[in-house]
Amino acid sequence: MNFDKLDKLMDSMQARYGVPGCQVWVYYNHRIAHRYSAGFADEAKTRPVSERDLYILYSATKVITNVAMMRLVEQGKLGLEDELSRYLPEFSRMQVQTPEGVRPAERAITIRDLSTMRAGLSYNLNTPYIQAARQAGKRTTREMMTAIAEEPLLFEPSTHFNYSLCHDVLGAVIEVVSGMRFGEYLRREIFAPLGMEDTTFHPTAEQQKRITAQYQYEPETNRVRPISHDNPFALTDAYESGGAGLYATAPDYLRFAAALANYGRADNGYQLLTPQSVDRMRQDELSGACRQDFDAIGRVGYSYGLGVRTMANPERYGFRTPKGEFGWDGAACSYVSIEPAHGLALFYGMQVMGYSAMYDEVHPAIREIVYETILG
């Protein structure tokens, strides 16, 4: 297989888009089929991009959180139709914001609503309740839920799709059901068994030195500028965000994606999920107004499953990517694609915030080049 076309795209990222550094890893047929890096991992441009670089995954964390949820569903400890208030009582008497004012919600939020972003939550981190909780000190994931539950819902649960803090709340549910901190549950059930030694909510001092420099895209100048390594979604030092909090290296995330590409079974024999659960995650969950809401995000050809985008209409757009390919991306433009029918997965790592061209142009281009190269 000749990945020259993919490598040329990686090499063009600096000149074409101003991306200081990036890397791509491709897994196919139980092996790493290709890996390539371009540019530098530090602002001074003295450290070439390498497999040891850590990325703030941001929303690529969501795929891991939903896999963690599905493990509990498989074990019969959690149900998709369970009401959220069964695990987090503060969500038992929710209010809904309407044009006429605030009123009591008529529907209960379910676990499925959380997974599919249909709970009515927002991504507003600056509500008075969240700000007060942050100022109170090192609130944990579970402790922060009271503040999130204080904000009125944007709509009745299950009636619309809205990208939001749903998976942060799902992380708190996992804490309650598992009886352990969210990060510890992930370490025991996912990271350690898969050999993901550099995936964490809390990088060590040594890992901090390996975090890729972070940048902000400025559309006014079409340039990127360096910013701090701070993660705005880490609400406190003790908060473990199921929606955007993890750090990982490219090979670590690829181990996780590869297991899902093999219908839940890692190459070391660990059964991360059953094939039925992998298929369940990538089923299309949206219709009607919910699908229209998702379409507005701009993920062309996709709908949404249980915490993942899922390819729904490849034929309509002439994509080589098959129906049922799934994954997600992050605020700094890292990207994961998983496709079990062909045992194929890829991870693309970079760290530039707010760069819409990555989602609209680069991610689809990477995906299509990989499928063109492997499947012809």
Features:
376 residues, alpha+beta, seven-stranded antiparallel beta sheet, three-stranded mixed beta sheet
Structure explained in plain terms:
The protein is α+β, with helices and mostly antiparallel strands and 376 residues long. Helix content is 35%, strand content 17%. The chain is built from 13 helices and 14 strands. The strands form four sheets. Strands 2-1-13-12-11-10-9 form a seven-stranded antiparallel β-sheet, with helices on both faces. The protein is globular. The chain starts with a helix and ends with a helix. 47% of the residues are buried.
**What's the SSE pattern?**
HEEEHEEHHHHHHEEEHHHEEHEEEEH
Helix content: 25-40%
Total DSSP E strands:
14
Task: Give the amount of beta strand, in percent.
Answer: 15-25%
Main sheet characteristics: 7 strands, antiparallel
| Number of helices, counting only DSSP H or I runs of 4 residues or more | 13
Shape: globular
Structural class: alpha+beta
Spatial order of the strands forming the largest sheet: 2-1-13-12-11-10-9
Average residue-wise pLDDT: 97
Radius of gyration, in angstroms, nearest whole number: 20 Å
Amino-to-carboxy terminus distance = 10 Å
Poorly predicted regions: none
